[in-house]
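Weekly structure sync, notes
Attendees: PL, DS, HV (note-taker this week)

Item 1: VOC family protein
DS walked through the input record. Source organism listed as Nonomuraea guangzhouensis. Sequence as pasted into the shared doc:
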Amino acid sequence: MSIVLNHLIVPAADKTAAATFLADLLGLPVSAPSGPFVPVRVNDDLALDFDDRHQVQPGHYAFLVDDDTFDAVLGRLRESESIAYGSGPGHGWDRQINHLGGGRGVYVRDPNGHSYELFTAVP
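Item 1 (cont.): predicted structure, written out as tokens:
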């Protein structure tokens, strides 16, 4: 068996709200609570388990996505006036995308201060 990242614990002020934010962003369902966690299954191997028992320390979570997923996420971002997103750390939340490495990318700030990065592979 190869090494597979199975889950990450994501600290949140409100685990249900934080899980719902990411699930809505990515077009995924929120899974049923599991113990103290509210999981969002990103793919067959990885779940992000949202937990509100501890202090929030903002983190950075990067997702390699296909073009269709990127377009769907970008569409949801453009429809929302309340979600901060942008082309990268050097440009703030400028509501633009980047073309680093020849693909497309965007950074999204969640209500807990986490930064979600979504990017496509180079064509």
